[in-house]
Design a protein that fits this description.
By secondary structure, the protein is mainly beta. About 5% of the residues lie in helices and about 60% in strands. The protein contains four helices and 52 strands. The strands form six sheets. The protein has a 32-stranded antiparallel beta sheet that branches. β1 and β2 form a beta hairpin. It is globular, with a radius of gyration of 30 Å.
Amino acid sequence: MITVSAMILLYGTVVAQETVKTTMVTTPTSFIIKGIVLNMEDGKGISNARVTIKDTLTAKVIGYTFTNETGGFSVTARSAPPWALDISSLGFKPFKQTLNSHPGKDLTIYLESSQIVLNEVNIVAPKVSVKGDTLNYLTGGFLKEGDVSIEDVLKRLPGVEVADGGQILYNNKPINAFYIDGKNMLDGRYSIATKNLPPDIVSMVQIFENHQPVKALKDFVPSENSAINLKLDPKAKARWVAAGDIAAGVPDYLWDGRLLLFRFSPDMQSMNTLRSNNRGKEIAADLKIHTLGAAAQTQLLKSEDVNLVNVTGVSMPAVGDERALFNKSGYVSANTLFNTSESTEVSLKIGYIYEEKEREQQEWTEYILGDGVKRLMGESSSFSGIINRPDLDLTVKANTSKYFLQNRVNLKGRFENNHTAISGTRELQSKATLRQYEASEIITWIKPMNRSLIKLSSNTYLSQMPQTLVVWDDAVPQKSVFQDVSLFQLLSVNNLSYTRRAGSITAELSAGANIRYQELETASDISQDGVTTGVGSLSLTDLYISPAIGYDKDGKRVNLTFPLKIQNGALRLAPDINLRYRISSFWEGSGGYRSSNRFSEITSVEPVRRMVSYRTFEEGAGSLAESRDNIVFLRGVYNNPLKLINLSGTVSYHKFKNQTLPYVDYMEGESFNMEDFILRGDFFEKNSGKSLSSTLSLSKSFFDTPLLIGVKTSFSFTESNLVQQGVFTKMRLNRYSIVPTVEFSLFSTADVELTAPFLLQQRESLSGIASWSSLASFSPTAKINIKLTEQTSLAINSALYFNEMTKGVFYLYPFTDIKCRVKIKKGEIFAELTNLFNNREFRYKFAGELSVTERFYKLRSTAFMAGISFSF
């Protein structure tokens, strides 16, 4: 970064002293004019000066931009000369000049300073500027009174979407890097920053379009993903900054606390967080690892929680955990990045999560069997669980244009104890003990050589998961059943590739071996034959060679990949075709086709019968089952950051066959071997289907009025052929959703955000005995922040949930939270009232392919909390 900065300064000085000849870049209707704006007194570049090109006949603006940090500018005039060139900057006299023809070289313009006295003047900087593929958004232009973290600001940027789990998408694609002052300290754990950094310390949010985070790949592997960089305010740089809040309340004893300690400097970055609460806030999302899109080649193999055994009552309602979860949660996270040299860095991440959770719910499920028979099961459950999650991540990385070298090691664990008391057909207790030990490592080496590039990577994941489930009847405590199960997994992905570039054409040849091994051990006494044990294993080896060719020129990009695989002796071809055409700087279209082959997991290849929960048992064949997918998609994007508008849409068609979905089998019996609770899933029933889906999203902000409008729509139609009770069944599932959003301000005293999500799900049987179900939900919300005085504000969050239980019958649940904030010298004092209407329950229905389920949740009562936020 120091080298790059020095080069920029040197370039600015040279241009200031002499005229640099350039080649005129033209099209039949546009001309590019370049130059530099300097201070007449000291010869230094003037940044953020407004450069405007007007038609001399109509006075219409045909192009404008703002100068960069060194005073340079490049503006496109979209009509032929003559032009009127206007340049203005606060504190300088305006500059005007008529250009009768294209200058043919860079312009050097000097502005004379102007001493003027202004009374009560509000200085408004431009909200957005563009330089090449970099979009610069001033945080102050998108910041609102009630914003708590920088995530609130990111949601308002055109084209940016923050998903419920915290992942950031730009133009419907995940970002591939998240920088803080140019340093990627957090990798995929960027939610630690977005959910905790105060927005007032971030001066600018930058979006790097078509960003390639690996410098050695920049000229060989073009990227369609973007990155985000937070430029910090100078007051938050090169010093330790502490921020946090603490609150307490009633009923019982409620607390909510957070402490953030960070320091960002050129040679070291450190961000440390401590959070804890018992008010229902889910905090584990802060430490979630997000997939980084095209940068996945530098990421560890993604691991997820695997529950081989389960208790019931662990689902989350649509109103969110904060209203239905009774908890005691906390985490500590320490993240540090050291720059050991100009191009080498070492990062260390340590995290630990502790959670105690409790929920109460009731559930009624209607199962529609293959012969048309319907079975209804109901139960009430009281769930409690404790979970501990330690995590350690160490990365050593050298990222230069000459080579890329990375070694990353990750160690993590999960230790979970869950218990559920069940009331239904009989009183039952179930307890699950879950353990998960994981170790991962990735080594990546990339070396460009003139017009060629060699890449070598090895990514390995190991895990061991011993788990136990015990079920007993309160009425007969001496009788119980148990299930012990342990899963061992080894995954290894290894690749060597050679890339050759010739002008606009890039050819690549890669080869490798992917290995997957799994072993499942079980022991249980769920049958009447005593203890049954079993051991099953699965091994899958991919030997592949993959030629690829790409073309990239003048906004046109074509990538063709034809991997040829030998998967356990079977020959498979999975082509991938991607087309992209950048019509203009604002319009872009893309499309493609991809094919894939997937194999079942060991958890679906049961050597003996396994109890998953007290009412669900699984038993399957001891052979691999293959799934094949074919996907065709089209995508279009219009993104005009200067006008703060973003429009994107996708259409995709998905055809699948040989999927391995289970069918449901309801069994009845009298003995205590739980047969009267069993829903048995027999796997490896062949089936096929197809789906058509589409999405459309639009967001528009306005410069002159504080208004933002947006809408997101999606629909999908899926038809599938499957087996129920040995009977062929054809099903159709339709899903429609629309989420309109409006944000606006009233007289500079109130900020209002309105959303109105609507969801419709339809399920239909197309064979056998006809069945039909249709469920709709509508949940409008309103967030209002009112500025009472310069120091005092009032925030009101309201939501209405309309859930359809049966055709035309809706349940209505209103929720309102109120928060009052009073600013003090280095923070604020606040008081809040949650769940004002004291809803004690929430009920909703959802449909699956084989069932319709209604759930009833116990919610938290009205609560009052008061606290203080601070920073120093």
